[in-house]
Design a protein that fits this description.
2 copies of one chain form a homodimer. Helices cover about 25% and strands about 15% of the residues of chain A. By secondary structure, the first copy, chain A, is of the alpha+beta class. Chain A is globular. The interface of A and B includes residues 6, 175 and 177 of A. The structure holds zinc ion (2 copies). Chains A, B: Belongs to the p53 family. Chains A, B: It is found in: Nucleus.
Chain lengths: ~375, ~375
DNA sequence: CAACAAGTCG
DNA sequence: CGACTTGTTG
C-alpha cells in the first residue's frame, strides 16, 4: 500500500474488517478445517462472511442493524408497509464484498441504462464495456424490467463497489470536499444522505442505508412501485455526487461499479445486475479512449512494455465472454524464501483479501472448498507471522 | 465570472468588500470629487482603502481588531514584551490589496530564498522568475537580512496574495479538504493556525493573524529575534499547506506571491520584498517549463494564436525591468454601446477592482489623482446601473 | 472539443 | 523522471 499524502484511509487494516472477538476466534483456530466450519456455520455474533444457504441468499445480522440510517421521512400512509419492509433490510457491513456476477433470477431481472442519442452528452453508455460515463451531479435514467411479478413486495438495492478485487471490500464513500455541509451538492440534503456517493432523486421512498462512520457499506434501497396492469418497466434516475477521481477518502480514480440487486422482504436476492461507472469531466472523451484501448487489447496488440498498466474492471456481461481459464481450477505449490516480515505480512493480508473476494464470486460452486482451504492456509501463515 | 460547480466562493461580490454603511455612503455620493475626498480622508468607521500618509504607511482600523486570532500561547515571560508588540498589529482587512512593490527601506531589507543545490528538489528557486517552486508541506528556508538595526523591536509580516490584480483583493485561504480537522496536515495544529495557507514552523513566536471567516486577509507576524552582536541574518523556515491547484475556496491554480514586510511596533513599513510562489507536485518540471516560456516570450516569439493564454504574474524585481509604457499616463475616451445590464455590471465591477488595485500601486505618485478620478467615474456608472 | 495544466504512477 | 491521466479553459 503506497503512503501518499492524502491516502489516510486508503485501505482497511484487517482489524477493521472484523469485530475484535471474531478476529480472535478466527486466528486462534489452527486447523484449516475448523476455520472452514467456522466460516460456514458457527461464526460468533451471527455475522457470516459467506453464507451456506445456496447461491443467492444473504444472511444479515440483526444486531448490527443501524437505526440512524433509517430515519422516518415524510411518507404516504399508503406506502407505510413497503417502507417498513425496506427498513428491515439492514445495512451491509463494509467488509462483505458483494458478488458482481450477473443473475437474471426468477423474474428475468433486467437493468438498462437508457441510451443517450443527443448531441450533448451529460452521460454516455458503452455497451462493449458495460459502462456508463457521466459528469458529476448529472442525472442519468435507468430502466428496471422484470417478468412474472409476484404479489409480495420487491425491492431494488443499489450499491456502489470498487471493481478491483483488492479494494472491493472498502466502502465507496465521498471525498471530504464534496461531503462538506457547505458544498453546493448538499444544500437541503438530509445528513445521512449526504455521505452517499450515488443518489436516487427520482424516488422519494429511497432509503439511504449504512453509515461510513461505522465502516458500513452505503447503499440505496427502494420498494418497487406497485405495478400498473401490464407494466413491467420502472424507470429511476440516479446521480453521482463525487467524481471517480475525487481524492481520499473518495474514489481516487479507482474503477467503480454499481450493483443492482432485486430483493424480497427478507433480503433474498432474486436478481443481480452490474454496471461499470466512471464519473468524470469528459465522459465522451474518456469513453472513446477506453473503448479504443479495449479494442486494441482484444486485437492481440501486445501490451507495450513501457505503458502504465490500467486497472481493468472485470470484463462484465457483454457478448465478450471470459474464456474459461484451465489453470483456475488447479492447485499450485509455492516454495520460496521471502525477505522481510513486514513484506510477508502485507503479502498475506493481500492474499487473504483475494481469497475472500474469490469466495464471494464462487459461492456454492465446486471450487468453493478449494478456495476456503487456501484462505485457511493464508490465515495460518498470518498467525505464525504474528507470533 | 464563470459558474463552475466548485466555484462557490470564487470572487467576492462588492457587498463583501465594504461594510454596508460604507457602501451606502459611497454610492449616495454623486460628484466624483466628493468621492475622492471620502476616500482620502473621511471614510466613516475610520477604515481607509488607500491612505494619505505617504507611500509606506498602512492605516489600520482598531475597531476591527480580531481578538480571536490573538489567543494566548505558551510564552517565555522574557518575550512577553515582543509578543505584546506583535499583538498590536491588527489583521489586515481582506479588501485592502497590499502593494507588491519592492522597497529596501532604511535598513536595506533583503529577503532571499536559500538556494537548493541537492539532486532531490523539495523546492527550487528561479532567479529569472523571482519564484520558488515547492511541494506542499515541504519546508523551505528564507534568509532575512538588514543593516543598521535600531534598538526598538522590529517585526516581519508574511502575507500571501494573488498576483493577478483582478483577484489580489481576495484573501488567500485553504481548500476545504486540507482545512478539514482530520487532514494529516492539521494534527496538533491550533485552530486559528489551521486556516493559514503558509506556516512558519521555525518560529514559535509567530502570530497567525486574521480570520478568513470574517473575510480578513491571513498573515503571519513575528518579532525579529534580538540581534546577536554583528549578526544581521535571520533564517526562518516556511511551509505551504495547500497546493496552488487546490480547489475553491483554495488557490485554484491562481498565481500567488508572498509579501514580506519589515514593520515597526506601529505597523509602519520599513521594507518590503515580494516572492512569487508555486506549490505543486513537480516543482522542477514546472520551474523548467515556466522559465522556458518566459524566455520564449522575451525572445519576441510572437504568441501563437491557438495557444491558451497563461495568467502571467507581474514580472517581479529581477534584472528584467518593465518598460515604462507611454500610454500609462494618458486618458482615453470611451464611447460605446454595450448590451446587457448584467454584462455592464460585471464589467464595471471589474473596472472598479482594477482601479483599486492600481491605486494601491501608485499611492503618493502623480498619477494617483487621475486614478481616483477614473475610479469615481466607474462608481458613478455602477450607481446608475443599480437604479 | 482541442489544447493545455497539473496530479499520479511505475 | 517520463509517461500517462484527467480536470480546465477558451
Ligand atoms: Zn468528491
Ligand atoms: Zn488544499
Amino acid at each position: 500500500m503506497s503512503q501518499r499524502s492524502h491516502d489516510f484511509t486508503a485501505s482497511l487494516p484487517l482489524s477493521d474488517l472484523f469485530p475484535e472477538e471474531i478476529q480472535q476466534e478466527l486466528f486462534s483456530q489452527v486447523g484449516s478445517q475448523e476455520i472452514n466450519d467456522l466460516l460456514v456455520g458457527e461464526m460468533p455474533g451471527n455475522l457470516m462472511m459467506v453464507d451456506g444457504y445456496g447461491n443467492e441468499i444473504y444472511n444479515h445480522n440483526e444486531l448490527i442493524h443501524d437505526e440512524n440510517s433509517l430515519k422516518t421521512e415524510d411518507l404516504d400512509s399508503k406506502n407505510d408497509f413497503m417502507v417498513q419492509m425496506a427498513r428491515q433490510l439492514p445495512p451491509l457491513p463494509t467488509n462483505e464484498v458483494l458478488s458482481n456476477e450477473e443473475y437474471v433470477g426468477p423474474h428475468d431481472f433486467e437493468v438498462s441504462v437508457v441510451p443517450n442519442h443527443k448531441s450533448k452528452y451529460p452521460w454516455v453508455y458503452s455497451g462493449i464495456l458495460n459502462k456508463v460515463f457521466m459528469k458529476m451531479n448529472q442525472q442519468f435514467p435507468v430502466d428496471f424490467k422484470l417478468k412474472n411479478r409476484p404479489d409480495r413486495s420487491l425491492f431494488i438495492r443499489i450499491t456502489p463497489q470498487y471493481s478491483a478485487h483488492h479494494n472491493a471490500n472498502e466502502a465507496v464513500c465521498r471525498c471530504i470536499q464534496h461531503n462538506h455541509h457547505n458544498d453546493p451538492t448538499n444544500i437541503g440534503i438530509d445528513d445521512n444522505v449526504k455521505q452517499h456517493v450515488i443518489r436516487c432523486p427520482s424516488n422519494k421512498q429511497a432509503q439511504y442505508v449504512g453509515d461510513s462512520n461505522q465502516n458500513q457499506r452505503l447503499s440505496i434501497v427502494f420498494p418497487l412501485s406497485t405495478p400498473q396492469v401490464g407494466i413491467e418497466n420502472v424507470r429511476e434516475t440516479f446521480q453521482f455526487v463525487c467524481k471517480s477521481s475525487c481524492p481520499a477518502p473518495g474514489m481516487q480514480r479507482r474503477a467503480t461499479e454499481v450493483i443492482f440487486t432485486l430483493e424480497d422482504e427478507l433480503g433474498r436476492i432474486l436478481g443481480r445486475k452490474c454496471l461499470q461507472v466512471r464519473v468524470c469531466s469528459c465522459p465522451k472523451r474518456d469513453k472513446d479512449k477506453e473503448e479504443t484501448e479495449a479494442q486494441k487489447a482484444n486485437n492481440g496488440t501486445a501490451p507495450r512494455g513501457k505503458k502504465r498498466k490500467v486497472e481493468h474492471p472485470p470484463p462484465a456481461s457483454s457478448a465478450k465472454v471470459l474464456m474459461p481459464q484451465p489453470d483456475a481450477s488447479r492447485f499450485f505449490q509455492l516454495n520460496m524464501q521471502l525477505f522481510g516480515k513486514n513484506c510477508l505480512v502485507d503479502i498475506m493480508n493481500f492474499a487473504e483479501k483475494t481469497y475472500y473476494y474469490e469466495l464471494g464470486l464462487h459461492r456454492g460452486m465446486p471450487e468453493e472448498a478449494a478456495l476456503r482451504d487456501s484462505l485457511a492456509k493464508v490465515q495460518e501463515v498470518k498467525k505464525q507471522l504474528s507470533q
